[in-house]
Specification:
The complex is a heterotrimer. Chain A is α+β, with helices and mostly antiparallel strands. Helix content of chain A is 24%, strand content 22%. Chain A has 4 helices and 9 strands; from the N terminus they run ααβββααββββββ. In chain A, strand 5 and strand 6 form a beta hairpin. Helix content of chain B is 41%, strand content 5%. Chain B contains 8 helices and 4 strands; from the N terminus they run ααααββααββαα. The chains are: A alpha+beta, B mainly alpha, C mainly alpha.
């Protein structure tokens, strides 16, 4: 083998620009190729088809007693369905928006004509715990709604954040009344 | 805390570690008034502890006659009962008296007598059925219940003996029962044990305290069946390490004797 | 150009290998005759302990993985099967579980030793940076490992910690769903955590290799914080420190054994013996004890993004430590004021640990805030200022002189500072 290798000089002479451009294109193409390999790896960690396919659920709300509620499971996430009392509805409607971190009127949180039903995600907007209060035996905090045991967030009877570290109200979930005793979530 | 301020680095570090450790175990979850648990002298506590076989066998009798009507023991097998001193024949007979789900030759669901190699039979086919049969409450599985509760055996003993009438003015929800040691005092489980609930095969006095003591001994065994082997091995390992520590320290002293440091 | 390595190894087989791949020479040089300051105290044994713990965790972990099932319906039962039916399964599992705690105890002592004796200062900045990186990867590994038994604390710790990322504006939500592989912590999450929990210890091993390699370039710091001036200040690593470290290692195993055999659940949380239930939050979620100080910092501000930023900052700030501490003197032995504040920092970290364990109410909230404030004050303000103002004590001439009680130097020891080998 020859000990000396011929090293062509780069970048100078009349061919320089063209060769630089070629190198650039080659490098860029290689980068695209590398990205094409990495993206399937990254995307394989995103929710898969079977997870995404979990569709809507129907819930019979007739058996839920006044003042109490249930936790339904939708897309693997818990959802509060609470049967509010007259007092709770009044409290929710009377609460001053100025005192709220994430102001919303009670009317925006429930469906007209079904004010007694409050249906929200059951995941605390702070760090994803499930606040207590769906059963009247659980602590409901100062505002009579929900009390999150993890970090002490307190929600009122319209599931609006009123005290504690959570930044937002419990999110609403898409739902519709099929009739007076049955709802569809999703 | 004060001791950590002394710049004896090693002592402080050890105290610090101990403080951290203690803070983990000592603090109860909530500031709620938790009454002090009864302190029972268990045969299996301490580094030399073993399970009182007779108590554990009586405890199995209680589980079998009382608890197993609602509570599963899903991690345990009938063969595990050998660990509380039953013979293989006794275990086979106990298993054979239970019927567990199976499939017949046509693939249809049926039942067959249980074998020693089977899991303990569950009282309900699933959690929903368990809730439906218990007014919405789910009787927890008891396989590791002693390890799954703060306070361990003392807590379980407390719950079993802690059923009393609610104090005046206490609002008890319908369907719930008052218990001194349960968080919030309202427990779905009705009082399971009273004086004379079971008649012991070996004729032991069947007071509620004795019954609770025995069933907690049994449940502790089911939660940590490895405990006796662990304790035996632990003593040997610690003695060996003490010996090795002394030996290596002697080697170190000799080696470093001539080094000024 | 190409030639065989010149080897002094006598054994013919080892000689044959060593001439082709000089591993024997390397081990001899790095762990045999390696010149090590002769004045180490026992705090210098914790690095070796940490390395042994890592190997122990990898060994027990590999065998646990042979019996573990990473599926949400089977994980809890498979761990119970390990505890009950697998031969010595309880020993593997308890050793692995408590080994994590021992690992953190040892690493925390190792880190505070570095803080006390200024081991992070020039020229050992990169050594320190690698160490902090090891700490970060270790925390990620421990967190994912805690999820695997699929108890209530496993599930809810995973939920709380992954949710931290949702605080990032705009891309937070997609990132969290990507981490979960779904809309909540679930089977895909458990699977990937198992995969990564198996992978990361080997990454750690590589980082530890770099950490030790960097250490062997600069040489070790020592309790006086002055560089060795010659052979009279050092000892060959073997047998002096191999033997001394063995004594420390025996004591370490003694503590470890008492924990595993007699108090295996002392540092764990009883709720983790309840199978995970996504529809029921335990009344009080706490991480394992070794994360408690950071958890307290997270909760010190009643603002989600702020708390998270502060928590990450509390770790990342350590990367800047070599440049924040402006004092040229390394060891706190010669820094009377720094020494006091060092212990204030230790107590602060312990207080944060206790606060992290408590529910976020009452006195614990302001206490956590004060401790958090001090933590940042210590690194960001105190250290840069103190380095300029503090009157440090006179440093000894050399390690040997200090050892011999500061008398006149023996003729041999008064030699000129040597070039480091």
């Amino acid at each position: 083998m020859s000990a000396t290798a011929h090293v062509p000089d780069h970048g100078s002479g009349p061919d320089g620009t063209k060769r630089d451009f070629l190198q650039l294109v080659a490098l860029a193409s290689a980068a695209v190729g590398a990205g094409a390999i990495i993206w399937p790896l990254v995307d394989s960690m995103n929710p898969s088809k079977d997870v995404l396919a979990l569709s809507e659920i129907e819930v019979d709300i007739a058996p839920i007693p006044l003042g109490s509620g249930i936790i339904a499971s939708w897309r693997g996430q818990p959802v509060f369905i609470r049967h509010r009392t007259e007092t709770e509805i009044k409290e929710a409607q009377a609460a001053p928006l100025s005192e709220m971190r994430d102001p919303a009127t009670d009317a925006e949180r429930v469906k007209a004509g079904h004010e007694q039903w409050l249906i929200t995600s059951a995941i605390c907007t702070h760090l994803g715990c499930i606040p207590g209060g769906i059963k009247p035996t659980q602590p409901r905090g100062e505002f009579g709604g929900w009390f999150c045991p993890c970090h002490g967030s307190q929600y009122d009877t319209a599931a609006r954040i009123r005290k504690g570290p959570a930044p937002r109200n419990l999110p609403l979930v898409p739902y519709a009344f099929l009739n007076d005793t049955k709802i569809k979530i999703g | 805390m004060m001791r950590t301020l002394r710049p004896t680095f090693i002592g402080a570090a050890l105290v610090g570690a101990a403080l951290l450790g203690a803070s983990v175990t000592a603090a109860p979850a909530r500031a709620e008034e938790a009454p002090e648990l009864p302190s029972v002298n268990w045969s299996f506590s301490g580094p030399f502890g073993t399970y009182d076989r007779a108590a554990a066998q009586r405890g199995f009798q209680i589980y079998n006659e009382v608890c197993s009507n609602c509570h599963s023991l899903k991690e345990a097998y009938y063969r595990d009962l050998i660990g509380i001193g039953l013979s293989m024949q006794q275990v086979k007979d106990i298993a054979a008296s239970k019927r567990v789900p199976a499939l017949d030759e046509n693939g249809q669901p049926t039942e067959r007598p249980a074998l020693a190699s089977d899991h303990f039979r569950a009282p309900f086919p699933n959690d929903l059925a368990a809730r439906a049969a218990n007014g919405g409450g789910l009787p927890p599985d008891l396989s590791v219940i002693v390890k799954a509760r703060e306070g361990g055996p003392d807590y379980i003993y407390g719950i079993l003996t802690g059923f009393v009438d609610p104090p005046a003015g206490f609002h008890l929800m319908p369907g719930l029962n008052y218990n001194t040691y349960f968080a919030g005092h309202q427990i779905a489980m009705p009082q399971p044990l009273r004086d004379g609930t079971v008649t012991y095969i070996d004729g032991t006095n069947n007071s509620i305290d004795q019954e609770a003591h025995d069933v907690v001994t049994f449940l502790s065994f089911i939660a940590s069946p490895e405990l006796e082997e662990r304790h035996r091995m632990g003593i040997k390992v610690v003695l060996f390490l003490l010996f090795l520590t002394g030996l290596s320290y002697a080697v170190k002293r000799k080696l470093w004797a001539n080094v000024h440091h | 150009m190409v030639g065989l390595h010149h080897s002094d190894v006598k054994n013919p087989v080892l000689h044959w290998i060593d001439t082709r791949l000089p591993v024997v020479t390397m081990i001899q040089k790095e762990y045999g005759s390696f010149p090590t300051p002769k004045n180490f105290n026992y705090f210098w044994a914790f690095g070796g302990m940490a390395m042994v713990t890592l190997l122990l965790m990898i060994a027990t972990g590999i065998f646990l993985a042979m019996s573990y099932t990473p599926h949400i319906t089977m994980a809890f039962d498979s761990v119970e099967r390990i505890m009950r039916d697998v031969n010595y399964g309880w020993l593997l599992r308890y050793a692995h579980e408590n080994g994590a705690s021992m690992f953190f105890i040892v690493v925390y002592v190792h880190m505070f030793r570095g803080l006390y004796y200024g081991s992070y200062k020039a020229p050992r900045e990169l050594l320190w940076i690698l160490g902090i990186t090891i700490f970060l990867v270790m925390m990620a590994t421990a967190f994912m490992g805690y999820v695997l038994p699929w108890g209530q604390m496993s599930f809810w710790a995973a939920t709380v910690i992954t949710n931290l990322f949702s605080a990032i504006p705009v891309i937070g939500e997609p990132i969290v769903q990507w981490l979960w592989g779904g809309f909540s912590v679930g089977n895909p999450t458990l699977n990937r955590f198992f995969s990564l929990h198996y992978l990361l210890p080997f990454v750690l091993f590589g980082l530890v290799f770099l950490h030790v390699a960097a250490l062997h370039i600069t040489g070790s710091n020592n309790p006086l914080g002055i560089e060795p001036k010659g052979p009279q200040d050092t000892l060959p690593f073997h047998p002096y420190y191999t033997v001394k470290d063995s004594v420390a290692l025996c004591l370490f195993f003694l503590v470890f054994a008492v924990l595993v055999f007699f108090f295996p659940d002392l540092l764990g949380h009883s709720d983790n013996y309840i199978q995970a239930n996504p529809l029921q939050t335990p009344p009080h979620i706490v991480p394992d004890w070794y994360f408690l100080p950071f958890y307290a910092i997270l909760r010190a501000v009643p603002n989600k993004l702020g708390g998270i930023a502060l928590m990450f900052a509390s770790i990342l700030i350590l990367y800047a430590l070599p440049w924040l501490d402006t004092c040229k003197v390394r060891s706190a032995t010669f820094r009377p004021i720094y020494r006091i504040f060092f212990w204030v920092l230790v107590v602060t970290c312990l207080v944060l640990g206790v606060v992290g364990e408590q529910p976020p109410e009452g006195i614990w909230v302001p206490l956590g805030q004060v401790a958090t404030a001090y933590y940042f004050f210590h690194f960001l303000i105190l250290l840069p200022v103190l380095g300029k103002l503090e009157r440090t004590l006179p440093l000894p001439e050399s390690i040997s002189q200090s050892v011999l009680g500061g008398g006149p130097l023996p003729t041999g020891a008064a030699s000129k500072p040597m070039e480091k080998a």
